[in-house]
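Researcher: Quick one. two chains, 225 residues in total.
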Amino acid sequence: DAGVIQSPRHEVTEMGQEVTLRCKPISGHDYLFWYRQTMMRGLELLIYFNNNVPIDDSGMPEDRFSAKMPNASFSTLKIQPSEPRDSAVYFCASNNGGSNQPQHFGDGTRLSIL
Amino acid sequence: GNSVTQMEGPVTLSEEAFLTINCTYTATGYPSLFWYVQYPGEGLQLLLKATKADDKGSNKGFEATYRKETTSFHLEKGSVQVSDSAVYFCACSGGSYIPTFGRGTSLIVHP
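Model:
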């Protein structure tokens, strides 16, 4: 079975540029989550969707961050303009909801903003 | 809200040593508890879970028992291997569908 697929795996760009991260969840999963992982803060939940609708975006750090889920098989996380402090590993995860359901993570996008 | 506290790492062991990584949680009601493992360059993957008190989750030689009286879910393995070197995350999910993760504990196993 295909897992959660993220692209690109690595992104290096200059400060001020727009960055778009992509995620394809596992087919049939109705919850999708975006996380950011850094040494300083650990794993932070940015936003999550249920049936393509954003439910809680309180973890999005600033207005420079936005996320969309136009259909059940695709989501994007966009940063515009990017800043060096946005450098981190960004993960997408999906599951079927329910507190006893584990999350399935992609392998992440390692983002470096110069 | 929920919270998870796990021991700080790194934990450094020799191959075949016994492993314990402590995890305690704070949550209302009866949360589900999880251990995830993250290998270098990869995402988190489920290692084991338990959904009610006194349940024992187990996988790949790892075990953890849901202790409601001590609000704990400690991870154990009787004999670690070099390939077990990774970061381990404890997580708690209750009251909502959104899990709360601990900060992660790095395990380094030497030959």
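The CA atoms of residues 12 and 108 of chain B lie 5 Å apart.
Researcher: Thanks, that's what I needed.
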